[in-house]
């Protein structure tokens, strides 16, 4: 049996969080200035309904995955929606259930406050992640556009 543990991020996780988030951003060929790291870390621990939150996954005691998520209002529902913004598992533990455990933790946490809609995006070329997502969720068919 695997030894995956998922828990809310703690201040003591900063170095592991930074390492894992940097690896996630590198995977998506993105770099962010230190100021964004600092503000994001602060926001993850700021109280507020719409502030981002996070989980860390450990495997045999080592931090190997993270997720960030946030709640937002919707014109289609009386309760908030939950956007799972970032999800990353170290390549050496992929396929061992880390990503699924992080998704399940977000789903369970959202459910505690009555949120049923947990959703996320991934790049169409991210075949590894899509295999997991196709197994744990339904594909909606919506296509993303942005104005960047």
Automatic annotation (TrEMBL):
Domain spans labelled N-acetyltransferase: 4-148
GO molecular function: N-acetyltransferase activity
Keywords carried by this UniProt record: Acyltransferase, Transferase
InterPro entries from the UniProt entry: Acyl_CoA_acyltransferase (IPR016181), Diverse_Substrate_AcTransf (IPR051016), GNAT_dom (IPR000182)
Descriptive protein name: GCN5 family acetyltransferase
Source taxonomy: Bacteria, Pseudomonadati, Pseudomonadota, Alphaproteobacteria, Hyphomicrobiales
């Amino acid at each position: 049996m695997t030894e995956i543990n998922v828990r809310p991020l703690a201040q003591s996780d900063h170095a592991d969080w930074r390492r894992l988030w940097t690896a996630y951003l590198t995977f998506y060929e993105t770099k962010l200035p230190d100021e964004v790291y600092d503000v994001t870390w602060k926001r993850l621990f700021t109280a507020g309904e719409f502030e981002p939150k996070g989980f860390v996954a450990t495997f045999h005691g080592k931090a190997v995955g993270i997720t960030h998520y946030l709640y937002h209002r919707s014109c289609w529902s009386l309760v908030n929606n939950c956007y799972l913004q970032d999800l990353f598992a170290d390549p050496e533990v992929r396929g061992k259930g880390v990503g699924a455990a992080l998704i399940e933790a977000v789903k369970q946490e959202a459910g505690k406050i009555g949120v049923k809609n947990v959703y996320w995006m991934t790049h169409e070329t991210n075949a590894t992640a899509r295999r997991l997502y196709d197994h744990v969720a339904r594909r909606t068919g919506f296509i993303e556009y942005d104005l960047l």
